[in-house]
């Protein structure tokens, strides 16, 4: 059953850093969040064509495009602490409910994956190529087959125009206090998911995503509606998450990531299909434009260790709220009656978890207005 709509509110309150946390820890955490956001924005600004990507129909195996990890051992799996498509957010206001639901800021889809590794770890190219872009904490390497890779949060050791060799040339070392290298993959100028089978190898995932709640709202910042009395145009919001398959050590331990796919359907209480299965979110291959961020995510969403102005939510888990439809769902498309909404969240390897919410449509005039 759907949980209370104030879940995001309670989570937001838990974000406040306790006084026992030192100023050094606070400043360090802010630096991590700021550099992460800037890295993602830098990748987009450096390659505007990435924003033109369209939503995919599904995954495709690309065995001929396989590559190992950018850190040693190259052919062993390393923990992924940030998924492709995760929200990357910096709110401009303080850590309040008003900021969470209405505040401005910088909002984007995560353009790659975050591979956890100790600070100072050497980072290598995953394919041969030429260094095309150099920044203060990252590089881009272009290959000869239309692919390119970004490596962020490193103190670079290469120069623009330099030829580099996979698993041999040291691009740089992970900068303290990042604790990870961000890897973005492009194919013909379009950002693509490196966790698609046949790309980043080896990679496995046996965890099952979970659908934590399903709620109806009147609008993006409205309160939860009773599922026993739904009418008119409504927003359907799903709280869904996944967990990294390999444990992430340190302060990112136990923090969630987003599912790769969310689908939904509506059936009658007797099991008859009323609305066939539809895709709400799909980051299995690429991501949508950042301009559509608030059409995919619902207000109340915030990332792990969220940033609210100068406040950093140290070691606090994120909350991922998704809209099932980019525009409000019109309940008048259904006859008055009792239905079941089935929402399924899946990962890049097809593991899935579902939840069902029974609701009643009551659009006819009479009791209740």
Q: Keyphrases for this structure?
A:
single chain, 369 residues, mainly beta, eight-stranded antiparallel sheet, five-stranded antiparallel sheet, 24 strands
Plain-language structure description:
There is one protein chain. With 369 residues, this protein is mainly beta. Helices cover 11% and strands 33% of the residues. The protein contains four helices and 24 strands. The strands form five sheets. Strands 1, 4, 6, 7, 8, 10, 12 and 13 form an eight-stranded antiparallel β-sheet that branches. Strands 14, 15, 16, 21 and 22 form a five-stranded antiparallel β-sheet that branches. The radius of gyration is 21 Å and the shape is elongated. The relative contact order is 0.20. The model is unreliable at 1-63 (pLDDT under 50).
């Amino acid at each position: 059953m759907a949980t209370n709509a104030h879940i995001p509110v309670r989570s937001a309150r838990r974000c406040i850093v306790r006084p026992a946390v030192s100023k050094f820890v606070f400043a360090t955490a802010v630096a991590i969040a700021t550099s992460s956001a800037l890295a993602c924005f830098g990748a987009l600004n450096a390659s505007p064509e990435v924003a033109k990507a369209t939503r995919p129909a599904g995954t495709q195996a690309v065995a001929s495009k396989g590559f190992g990890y950018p850190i040693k051992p190259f052919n062993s799996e390393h923990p992924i602490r940030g998924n492709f498509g995760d929200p990357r957010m910096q709110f401009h206001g303080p850590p309040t409910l008003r900021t969470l639901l209405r505040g401005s800021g910088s909002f984007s889809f995560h353009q790659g994956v975050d591979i956890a590794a100790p600070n100072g770890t050497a980072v290598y190219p995953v394919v041969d190529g030429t260094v095309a872009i150099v920044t203060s904490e990252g590089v881009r390497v272009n290959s000869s087959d239309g692919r390119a890779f970004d490596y962020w949060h490193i103190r670079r050791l290469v120069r623009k125009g330099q030829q580099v060799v996979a698993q041999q040339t040291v691009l740089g070392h992970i900068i303290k206090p990042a604790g990870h290298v961000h890897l973005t993959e492009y194919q013909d100028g379009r950002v693509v998911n490196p966790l698609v089978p046949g790309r980043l190898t080896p990679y496995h995932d046996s965890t099952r995503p979970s659908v934590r709640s399903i709620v109806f709202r009147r609008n993006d910042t409205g309160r939860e509606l009773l599922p026993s009395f739904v009418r008119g145009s409504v927003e359907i919001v799903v709280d869904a998450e996944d967990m990294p398959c390999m444990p992430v050590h340190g302060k990112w331990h136990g923090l969630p990531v987003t599912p790769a796919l969310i689908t939904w359907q509506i059936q009658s209480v007797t099991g008859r299909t009323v609305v066939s299965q539809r895709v709400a979110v799909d980051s299995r291959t690429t991501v949508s434009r950042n301009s559509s961020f608030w059409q995919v995510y619902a207000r109340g969403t915030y990332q792990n260790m969220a940033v609210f102005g100068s406040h950093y939510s140290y070691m606090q888990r994120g909350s991922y709220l998704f809209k099932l439809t980019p525009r409000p769902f019109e309940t008048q498309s259904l006859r008055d009656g009792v239905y079941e909404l089935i929402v399924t969240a899946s990962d890049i390897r097809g593991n899935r978890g579902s939840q069902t919410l029974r609701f009643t449509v009551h659009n006819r005039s009479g009791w209740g207005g």
